[in-house]
Design brief:
single chain; alpha/beta; Rossmann fold; seven-stranded parallel sheet; 8 helices; about 45% helix; binds nicotinamide-adenine-dinucleotide
Length: about 250
């Protein structure tokens, strides 16, 4: 129970990798506040975590709306008696799809939406937890980017650009918040089979990057959860401003 006594907010907790983060953090003893726009599915996942003996609450939240994020985070802090961490994981990918095309064909509105959900909402999450982490005497924030930003993958330049921005943002926050003992790190997943009930075409797409990896197998959400648990724990208490690639050695930082 490495995370006993920790209270952590996870965004994008209803599906895919965020669901796996929530399950693992709760299994390690943390109180988990699950924030997702898909309220019904979030409730279902939360019930399953509780059924397995974990402590979790689900709060339907659109992370693009600062007031909703603040309300949800404040509620989590009230219910858990404070907060120690935040995993900013909600983003565009499967549930909110993102067009695969070259940069000149990206729809204008979709460019803005990528920055709104992947970048601006991360800023909102950090703002909302700040008073609670300060009140706690410190804490840990992890912002989820993508290993694509180190590889220059063709197509989806808006996704890659919006995730790249998180590195500079997080390094700046690490310096601004160090004096409050708040750590800010970035985790970059590789291409991960996070789709629920993937069809053969999806499995083939997720198998494609295997050949450029040092560790040549398909990545799954389980490959990421240990890193998040570590960064939410006191074992990482002197690590901040870092970018950790969890992609089987496909890109190097
Ligand atoms: N799967 C991959 O290959 C991969 C690779 C690199 C990075 N990532 C990043 O990891 C994160 C999770 O990826 P995933 O594959 O699980 O994606 P996903 O699409 O399966 O899940 C995203 C989650 O975010 C939620 N969400 C979407 N919009 C929201 C909003 N406005 N407010 C609140 N919640 C919202 C969705 O309901 C869903 O639960 C994303 O930030 C993604 O960019 C994924």
């Amino acid at each position: 129970m490495r995370l006993s006594g920790k209270s952590i907010v996870v965004t994008g907790s209803a599906h895919g990798i965020g669901r796996a983060y929530s399950e693992r953090l709760a299994a390690d003893g943390a109180n988990v506040a699950m924030l997702d726009i898909d309220g019904a599915r979030n409730d279902e996942v939360c019930r399953a975590i509780r059924g397995a003996g974990g402590t979790a609450i689900a709060i339907r939240t659109d992370v693009r709306d600062l007031e909703q994020v603040r309300r949800a985070v404040d509620q989590a802090a009230r219910e858990f008696g404070g907060l120690t961490g935040l995993v900013n994981n909600a983003g565009m990918l499967n549930v909110v799809p993102i067009t695969r095309c070259t940069f000149e064909d990206i729809p204008d509105a979709e460019w803005d939406e990528a920055f709104r959900l992947n970048t601006k909402a991360t800023w909102y999450g950090c703002k909302a937890v700040l008073p609670h982490l300060k009140a706690n005497g410190g804490g840990s924030i992890v912002n989820i980017a993508s290993s694509t930003i180190f590889r220059g993958v063709p197509t989806r330049a808006h996704y890659v650009a919006s995730k790249s921005a998180l590195i500079g943002f997080s390094r700046t926050l690490a310096k601004e918040l160090g004096q409050s003992w708040i750590r800010v790190n970035v985790v970059c997943p590789g291409s991960t089979l996070s789709e629920e009930d993937p069809d053969p075409k999806t499995i083939a797409m997720r198998s494609e990057p295997v050949k450029v990896r040092a560790l040549q197998r398909v990545e799954t959400p389980k490959d990421l959860v240990g890193t998040i648990a570590f960064l939410m724990s006191d074992d990482s208490e002197f690590i901040t401003g870092q970018t950790l690639l969890v992609d089987g050695g496909s890109a190097f930082n």
